[in-house]
Amino acid sequence: MSDTPITLVLVNCHKSADLMYAFLQSTPADIVMTQEPRFGPLIPHRLDSDPDGVTVRSTVQHPLWDCYTPPLSDRETCLVAIFVRKSFAASLDILILPQPDHPGMSPCSLFIDIHISDSLFCILNVYHQVIYKESGGRRHNLHHLFANLLPSFIPTLVMGDFNTHFSTWSFPWATISSWACPLEEWFEDSELELMSPPWTTTCLGDPKSNGEFQQDSVLDLVLLNDVATCTGRFSSVSVSFSDSLGSDHAALFICWFPPFPPQPYECTILPGFSLDDTLQDSWSKAFSLLPTPPTNTVPLLMTAVDQFDMDIYDTCTPLFRCHMTPDFCGVRWWNAHCEATLTLVKTTNRGSHAATGRALHAVVCKAKQAWSNDQFHLASPDNVWKGMAWQHGQWANHIPPILKVDSSLATSTSDICQVFSDRFFPQVPKPIPASHPDDPLATPPCPFSTITDEEVSTALADTSNKSAPGPTGIGYKLLKWAHTANPERLTSLFNAAISLSTHPWKAAMVIPVPKPNKPDYQAAKAYQPISLLEYCGKLLEKIVAEHILIDAGNLHLLPDSQFGSRDYHCTTDATLSLVHSAQSCAKSGHVVSLILFDIQGFYDNLHIDRLVHLFQNLGFAPSLCGWVRSFLTDHQVSLSFNGSLLPEIMLNHSTPQGSPLSPILSAIYTSPLLHLAVSSLVF
How large is the average pLDDT for residues 546-557? Predict the structure, then answer.
């Protein structure tokens, strides 16, 4: 048995958001199973086109926890929720897998599978909501469970508020519930054994409105099936009212000792630094003293590129703190007063639970209000609109198991990577001739004008310091500092790259990001790849794109019917041109036909030899043509998700998504087709 247990706790929160926040903030458990969680509308997501917005319903969202709820219709209310600590779920060998298609799933029952290495463990959270008849009787709402027995071969833990009295666990004075026998039969048929101590109070009595006193009862139960108890990897159940923070239901704890304990989550160093603007002068002074290496050959250029990154890192290391993986912290408004009141709630006696619970509610409300006031009173012009982004929520940062082509489920990191690779990264395009009969006539090549320091400064000026950097972690702010301190470094690298027909920055990190409002996030098509490219490379690509755009405009290399990827043209121009052509055809008595089509994976299917041939025919410099070929080949792509950075994948075709050069390259690639279409028009 391992020495690292996984602690699970059961608690009824009585729809109190304050109780849930306080419990999640303070509990040492890894998994929290709640009944009657706070569930209701959040701030509506509003758009300019939909000012009323769409109201999203959810339970408490805590930064320390991932929340799982059963699938619900618009009229249903969530009665159970399972919270999994993020630092626990972030372990590389843990997989949390909800079962939305389980026949026993309902608003009051939630099934989740937990995979740790080769171990599978299922947990079921139940809340039995008793239904009161108009005639005065009561009936149960457990038909969805009675109709589905639990599998006997999977270790299963059942925890819940069953609201049921039975002789096996209830006090002698309790009236046996009418549905207790069917429930007990379901326990037996599912091979479930009671683990919580019988005849031990889990729900405190409370005075009724007519003055009578409702006696203490046993309503919250913990059960294990036979295959789970035989492993001997579960502790006994402990019952604690002090840990339930004023709820009239006790908190029930149980520990699971998996055969292969998960690796504990630890913060790791990431590429990049947390910069302090007040130290820019010190950084610039140190960087300006470093020499500029030679770049007159390809090996020297590659060495100079690596040295540039190393010099930035060496200059940053003594001044700034390295980036780290998230160190999960609690809600921001939690303060010392909340902590003190929480301690009072835990240590109070039974008779004062209600009073301390009200005190906790009042303190939490004041803490939230004080924190909110501070956010807006201390806001600066740079971050005054930051709070507006909160209404949009957060993207899910954990990729669930993904469906393969054969409809099986990819659960391991390597299998998910393969599914995403097949979806995101193109196959080798079919071979086509580099030259075609309708190609533009070859023109004499023109030299590529040298990149100047001013061009680099201009290109850097309109970049965002908040953009996510590439694999090295060097962002635009550091490049701005480096160029200010020593303009020669970047300019010499860029000019050498063009003259030597070599693009040195080919590494990219691809992150699958979920598309909004998709019905099924187990499908790979519900995600879009976001490529994080090296900013030195993107800066050079931006400058080269500007050079190509200027030449394309001055030399009329693109037809007038090309509206995208060029200066002084926009979608409105395309619409006006279409309307004008349609009206002209109608006035001349011709039939008007419009064909609209979308080319799937256009950037991924540009034929390199064909594109370079067009560049040569259009008269671009041979060094630039060679650089374009280098830019399009030998990409080193790494998928990153769920805290894992996968091995590099080599791609020898396609233009990188997110590159500022890709749009103009695609426009030049399709220009012969547009020239041919224009020359074929007959009015």
Answer: 85
